Amino acid sequence: MASPESAIADKIMSDAPWLIWRMPFGDGLSTAERTIKDYLGARIRAETWRAQAVPRSMLGRLSATFNDLVGRKPTAAPATPLDADEKADLSRTLGLPGRWKMVGLLLITAGVGWATTRIGYMDTEIYFPLVDVNIDLHWLYFPFLFLVIAGTSNGVNLTDGLDGLAAGTCAISLITLLAIAVIDWLRSSPDDVAARSHEYLDIAIVAAALIGGVIGFLWFNAFPAEVFMGDTGSMALGGAIATLAILTETEVLLVFIGGVYLVEILSVMIQVASFKRTGKRVFLMAPIHHHFEMKAWSETKIMVRFWIVGAILCAIGFALYYRYYLRFQL
Question: What is the model's pTM?
Fold first, then answer.
């Protein structure tokens, strides 16, 4: 019966041509990561699980697998054979295809668009703070919503590549949006508490609940991670952040409040475009946090520095909100 290491190697080797072809774009690496994460989940659930020296970081797991593929001496101790349940887990699919994710995002956008038309203070105008102008998008407002929701969801999904990275940056973004929602609620009726907007209060409560959930998750997701977010969590958080920005009418400020996610998406787009046109890569690996990993930065250093950059960008976003939305008046 094959060892777990050889089982993973066989699984990835069967897709090796596709993985190698997609490696410059990051897709092959993501597939390999998901395969190994699926295997580790199966091992934890199996009754025959035994303590073994499995590397804790994602690159550590990949390194152990590819060491086997290229014939290097494995770093992990010998493990127990796979049973039938574990083999079944290894043979399962690697998630929802991209086209169905886009269908889901379209449906969510339709729901958010319908809901915004039922809220009294919402309209199809977008405010651009730096130029201090409102532009009525009319029917283009709904494709714009899709761009905001799909872009933020996929941005958070790409950011979820290192332990604690996505959870920490999402917490910072959500705290910023919570502050905006609370200020909007207070300003909706400065003198009469009973007359204040229930909509903004509901938005603030949802944002606060999401912050609590993300921080609780981060406790176990910080390096070395014990639990993982996956596409389900990262895309849901991205969608929530986008929706909160839409409901507080600060969609344009997502360029700063979600600045880390924007950089992650742009790094992938630049990498793919450069490789297709010139055959050369701008980054050592995309998304950009993997570029710094390839430069021998530790996961913890990357995570904390991305948090710092995210906090600075959110502070800029909040300063623009204070300047252009509140006109320096609370």
Answer: 0.71
